[in-house]
Amino acid sequence: VFAPKNMPTNASYTVHGWESVKLVSGATLTIAANQTSLFASNLSANYLEVGSGASLAIVPGSALYAVNANLVNRGTLDIAGESPVFAKGGVSVAGNYVASGGKLVTRVSFDTSAATVLGVGQDVAGSTFVSAVSTRDGGGSQGQKILVISSPNDDLNTSAVFTVANSGRIGSSPYTWSISQGADKNWYLSTPGGVS
Asked: How far is it, in rounded angstroms, from Cα 107 to Cα 42?
């Protein structure tokens, strides 16, 4: 269990072989994209839980950063990165993604129809608020769709809802955006008419 009293502020560690990790209220953990073998090989035993009031930031690289764990999100999962210009990469969770009022922060480029992506290897369930940070480009177009959650193995019998924060408004875009699931089981940020 990580909490502010357990870890020095701004400390940096190289770790590997985790199984169950829970971030409690007030805890903040940042994982750099160059961390490898962070979790042990047994996926069924590996859980990464972001508790209510806690924050996990994964700094994206040019490709999806792999996390060999099941992710429970009750706090904030930030995969937007620090670049105000580029929206690419993201994080890929090998197991399930289950949320209970958690928040996902992603970065979106309207000009390139790209975002930092949350990849999920197994099931997607629960409710997530999505805060999309726009890059320094245009405001999108009518009917546009942008992949934000890749979940081709999602079990459609379990309920999942992604709601765009700020009443669907992103940056200076004139459109109201929403997130819905496509026929490919992936989830897309779109303006009206953008997902099929």
From this structure: 31
